[in-house]
Amino acid sequence: xxxxxxxxxxxxxxxxxxxxxxxxxxxxxxxxxxxxxxxxxxxxxxxxxxxxxxxxxxxxxxxxxxxxxxxxxxxxxxxxxxxxxxxxxxxxxxxxxxxxxxxxxxxxxxxxxxxxxxxxxxxxxxxxxxxxxxxxxxxxxxxxxxxxxxxxxxxxxxxxxxxxxxxxxxxxxxxxxxxxxxxxxxxxxxxxxxxxxxxxxxxxxxxxxxxxxxxxxxxxxxxxxxxxxxxxxxxxxxxxxxxxxxxxxxxxxxxxxxxxxxxxxxxxxxxxxxxxxxxxxxxxxxxxxxxxxxxxxxxxxxxxxxxxxxxxxxxxxxxxxxxxxxxxxxxxxxxxxxxxxxxxxxxxxxxxxxxxxxxxxxxxxxxxxxxxxxxxxxxxxxxxxxxxxxxxxxxxxxxxxxxx
Length: 404
Ligand code: GCU
Fold this sequence. Notes:
Blueprint: H1 3-6, H2 35-54, E1 64-76, E2 81-92, E3 95-106, E4 112-119, H3 166-171, E5 175-180, H4 195-198, H5 214-229, E6 235-243, H6 245-256, E7 262-266, H7 284-290, H8 313-318, E8 325-330, H9 338-354, E9 372-373, E10 376-381, H10 389-402
Parallel strand pairs: 4-5, 4-6, 6-7, 7-8, 8-10
Antiparallel strand pairs: 1-2, 2-3, 3-5, 9-10
Bound molecules: alpha-D-glucopyranuronic acid.
């Protein structure tokens, strides 16, 4: 546990008293009573706030982007799956980046829904499939994976398989599309590389105050991946998934891009699903200090000043309505504030109700391993900050019921 984690507040009695901004009252005080009004008068102002003051704006459009199928096989996972590897290139100002998407699709049906999610250490870490090349991008050092000098090694092949229940997905008719997030934007506090750099004007070295941080950069990368996926004739629907910092990116991707048919936030915590105003576990000040590159600089003014935030994260979740949304926590992951994640799903549900979609009606967090699954779903499982087979089993059951 880091120092910041050990000295955080984990005492429910020390959660400050706060008033949660109402999803259904506009900044100027008007009540919203149906989904037409929500979309016309409220959704956009909330969206704009998150875009300018939290994650930061994408500063323009790409000049060009393209996709290249670099490898394909009909014989992955013992013949159960087809595999595709697609290189996605983004171009702007005569500069470009390329990132790789690994796709497995079940062979039973001509089309299948897929989960799209970033991985933390390279596509070769999610599977032992030898046909997946090592990432050439910068990766964080990790002694237990044998990664030093920020370069992926053969020794890290398959080290994250336990976080991706690929065979379970395939056996249930789902596919997986995954990308190493560091190929879109390396996760370090320097903006000299990755997707941000493409957009700089001469002499610029970092985004402007209300422009995108890394989370918005990763969300943008997911949207561009969606441009490929929606045109792949073997894919019916895409549910965007992410764990932890990548769960924050998945939520923002779901809010910014309505083509995602559903969104799954796994232990996304502060700046993801958890309510900021509770200041339980990780806080805005702590996250902006430890990871100054994740959010827009305009978000810094809320460091230890959450009470002045005119929004909270339940409103980020509400931006995804009426599309299916799953928020999941882990009981021992107090840093991510399971109760704050639950309450956020509960308070977002009033927007789902405008569309006559069932959300999380109860204010009482369920017992561990007792999922509540409606269009908005929630569970808190036993165990720590991680993605487990249990999590995937719930996501698959829910996606079968709610993703068309
Ligand atoms: C840190 C960070 C969290 C983040 C997590 C992760 O703990 O403080 O905000 O979610 O890393 O990405 O694993």
